[in-house]
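Model it.
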Amino acid sequence: QVQLVESGGGLVQPGGSLRLSCVASGSIFSINVMGWYRQAPGKQRELVALVTSGGSTNAADSVKGRFTISRDNAKNTVYLQMNSLKPEDTAVYYCNALIKYSRDSFYGNYWGQGTQVTVSS
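Modeled.
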């Protein structure tokens, strides 16, 4: 019964900032990679950024220098700090994580329900 819950989305003007949070809860033994994806209307879902359990990060070229992903392992939480937002950043943002619920289980691929980010003047 692992679940991911996102928060922090909303409407913001171009050049503004938002901070997304995603908390994993339930039966959790360990969490591997956590990441953020987004999907704009009429487009495929794309990877925005990811962070490993050790803190190494990668981000899509379209957001490098503007978005920062981070995690707090003690809180089972991943964040996405979004600065200098552009209209093309408008999308539903989804949290994703690889999670084990017990020592002997396989890793499961879990998704949050998504949070809407709209960048408009």
